[in-house]
Amino acid sequence: MHAEPADQTSFDIADLVAALPEGGVVTDQTKMDSYRWDRANDPDAGLPLAVVRVGTTEDVQVAMRFAAEHGIPVVPRGAGTGLSGGASAVDGCLVISTERMRAIEVDPATRAVVVEPGVLNAEVKAAAAEYGLWYPPDPSSFEICSIGGNIATNAGGLCCVKYGVTTDYVLGLTVVLADGTAVELGGPRLKDVAGLSLVKLFVGSEGTLGVITRIVLRLIPAQRAASTLVASFPSLDDATQTVLDITRQMRPSMLELMDKASINAVEDVTKMGLDRTVEAMLIVQSDEADAAGAAEIAEITAIAELNRATDIFTTDDPDTGESFIVARRMVITAMETKGSLLLEDVGVPVPELGALVRGITAISENRDVVIALVAHAGDGNTHPLIVFDATNSDESARAQLAYGEIMELAIALGGTITGEHGVGRLKKRWLPDYLSPEALALNHTIKTALDPQGILNPGAVL
Ligand SMILES: Cc1cc2nc3c(=O)[nH]c(=O)nc-3n(C[C@H](O)[C@H](O)[C@H](O)COP(=O)(O)OP(=O)(O)OC[C@H]3O[C@@H](n4cnc5c(N)ncnc54)[C@H](O)[C@@H]3O)c2cc1C
């Protein structure tokens, strides 16, 4: 359900330009180009009518009221690092860019931080660190993605296996609704059950229910220095069994997997000496204190050995540990040098991780396309990266088939089509396969109640 393109003869964009601070509205087609795509590079991205670079909640209200009055589609946009086409433009839309909304204020007394949506995740972490506090959610893109985008996608990351995902840290939001009303939800309170859980409703809503303009986040005490274990395996099965055996017994603060193709792509870039011959590598961290941390690493070592690990390296040196995490974080960018990518984000219950990985290998062989694998393995959340030559129509078609088959496989294993990147535009086709008809109908009911004209992020998710 979404709005028809607005009749552009029925309004004058100059009225919006005049209603907003100088320089707030961009209509130059060349300048708007960088606002058309996110990192999914959706080939169907449209041409915006204007990019509105908002500075305040009131600016967003002005833009939304103008859009509502004239039936203009609106695409909210953070930093454009999304991987599902959720922020790709549609024809004749207003892109509402939050890049100028950068205020940030830490309150150490309540252990909360109030941020505007354009602040980068890394900037939230840095501001919290000044007070000995920590904002845990850490997508691999944390240095380049906005906190508003994180809230809108309910972003995950590497430490989420122990510390939870974005929603676990959102205490309050200000949201501008489709008719321009600004509503304040929640606040710096650790417990609050008055009314429906509306904060949770907007977390992960991918710009389809409102524009988030102010966020209250929970902070926790700084993380202890972590010990790192890197284990190499002769097969993916050995690595996934290790993941299962670890998560049955303990909660490491990181449990990531890279397959051979990912290791090689990263090694091509970094030349850091990763073993190119192994089939899989696990990067595990424990941030338990002193003896407890040492005991946890010893236990993980024993589990990895039982599962035929060929090499196990451990270190307490934070810089050495960080070098492996940097390697892990750069898998997507390293794979981008190999060709065009279709990025998956399927997740399964952890006991099904082995079956998922085996199934993905079979799809790769059947469709004759390279599928590299990197995973937040401890969460059962994998990122199969389908590599293809976009100039080769046959290979592109096979890559598209593999893309759908991986989601179908995940659903068959009791999993989800997206663990953290969102449905966006690229996965919308598969949402009805995942949700029950009743759940899908409820999604539509909520969307229609909040956005009866269907102007918010049309074509995304629903
Ligand atoms: C190299 C790389 C690694 C990545 N690793 C991870 C990872 O480990 N975990 C993970 O979860 N993601 C990861 N991502 C994906 C991406 O960074 C996240 O989805 C991130 O949360 C998007 O933030 P953004 O500011 O770029 O949002 P955008 O891409 O601009 O937007 C994403 C969605 O949020 C909506 N939106 C943005 N701002 C607002 C707002 N203020 N109000 C309402 N809706 C809004 C948009 O409409 C869109 O639907 C990675 C991306 C890259 C490129």
Structure description:
The radius of gyration is 22 Å and the shape is globular. The chain has 462 residues and is of the alpha+beta class. The protein has 16 helices and 18 strands. Among the domains are: 118 residues, Uridine Diphospho-n-acetylenolpyruvylglucosamine Reductase, domain 3 (2-Layer Sandwich), CATH 3.30.465; 164 residues, Alpha-Beta Plaits (2-Layer Sandwich), CATH 3.30.70.2740. The strands form 4 sheets. Strands 15-12-14-13-17-18-16 form a 7-stranded antiparallel beta sheet, with helices on both faces. Strands 5-6-10-8-9 form a 5-stranded antiparallel beta sheet. The protein has a 4-stranded mixed beta sheet with strand order 1-2-4-3. Bound molecules: flavin-adenine dinucleotide. Flavin-adenine dinucleotide (FAD) binds next to strand 3, helix 5, strand 10 and helix 12.
Quick overview of this protein structure:
By secondary structure, the protein is α+β, with helices and mostly antiparallel strands. Among the domains are: 104-221, Uridine Diphospho-n-acetylenolpyruvylglucosamine Reductase, domain 3; 249-412, Alpha-Beta Plaits (2-Layer Sandwich).
